[in-house]
Design goal:
binds nicotinamide-adenine-dinucleotide; Rossmann fold
């Protein structure tokens, strides 16, 4: 894959373009607003400066990323003409996304994957294309240039090739790695309320109005938990739970956790996040 298009250059789109440009891809960043594209470029520049400040980006690559590898355009046809992957990060509205996917299907190369960064919408219910096997949800966590997790949500017709890997169920380690690398990373800095400010209150309004989402029914029990409890796998206190803690005394296991928590607390306190 060489060329990637990001449609929508707002809160998520500018950062997504940056991630792919930093990864060496040729990126086409599209928005309906020229002003948003100008702001996106300036935000990417600021993001790169922040990364450089903490040693995660080499400033000599600045213009290659910002000027050469990202083409900023309001012309959707130009933006998608040669892309193998198109990710939309536009407003969280079913009608607008449906309309956009229709255009993406019409304008993109037939082999291109069409992905949505939607937070809550079941796009598979309303998106119609001639390539259902190549339509997929790839949900990035904000800000994508720092939070290293993407949720891949295939639809009923998405092919395994599009998903790339079909790992089956996630292991306990996978789930912990994913949560620590996403909202876990953000939570100590933003909390629950400030996160909404960073995500955008208009997005939250769209999310709340999404009637197609229904939380899973509460069963009051779990087969997995019942089976583990019946085997005496109660967690750290019995040396085994989802993880196996070996023969280490419980004091050592708690000490390891507590030292890490204390270190984190001190670090957050130094940053003024524990006041
Ligand atoms: N904000 C977050 O924290 C966050 C996190 C994960 C996923 N998302 C999802 O990402 C998507 C974008 O969210 P956002 O917060 O970046 O939105 P945003 O409002 O900041 O940006 C959306 C951009 O899309 C542009 N746009 C609208 N219609 C367009 C069209 N037809 N063609 C091209 N550009 C168009 C707008 O001009 C705007 O610049 C949503 O689906 C949202 O659910 C957002």
């Amino acid at each position: 894959m060489n060329n990637v298009t990001i449609v929508g250059a707002g809160t998520m789109g500018h950062s997504l373009a940056q991630v792919f440009a930093q990864g060496g891809y040729q990126v086409f960043l599209n928005d309906i607003s020229q002003d948003i594209l100008i702001r996106a470029k300036s935000l990417i520049e600021a993001n790169l400066e922040t990364l450089a400040e903490v040693g995660l980006f080499d400033s000599k690559d600045h213009s290659a990323v910002v000027e050469e590898r990202i083409i900023y355009t309001t012309d959707l046809a130009d933006a998608v003409a040669s892309s193998e992957l198109v990710i939309e990060a536009i407003v969280e509205s079913p009608d607008t996304k449906k309309e956009l996917f229709f255009e993406l299907d019409r304008l993109s190369p037939p082999e291109a994957i069409l992905a949505s960064n939607t937070s809550y919408l079941n796009i598979y219910e309303f998106v119609e294309t001639r390539r259902p096997g190549k339509v997929i949800i790839t949900h990035w966590f904000a800000p994508p240039h720092i939070v290293p997790l993407v949720e891949i949500v295939p639809g009923p017709h998405t092919t395994p090739e599009t998903v790339e890997t079909d790992n089956g169920y996630a292991t306990p380690e996978d789930i912990d790695r994913a949560t620590k690398a996403s909202f876990g990373l953000r939570m100590p800095i933003l909390g629950l309320v400030k996160r909404v400010d960073f995500a955008g209150l208009d997005l939250t309004q769209h999310i709340l109005s999404n009637k197609s989402y229904a939380p899973p029914t509460v069963k009051g029990r779990s087969d997995v938990i019942d089976s583990m409890v019946s085997k005496g796998r109660l967690g750290v206190k019995t040396g085994k739970g989802f993880y196996d803690y070996g023969d280490s005394p419980i004091e050592d296991i708690l000490r390891e956790r507590d030292l890490k928590l204390l270190k984190l607390k001190e670090f957050l306190s130094d940053m003024g996040e524990m006041d």
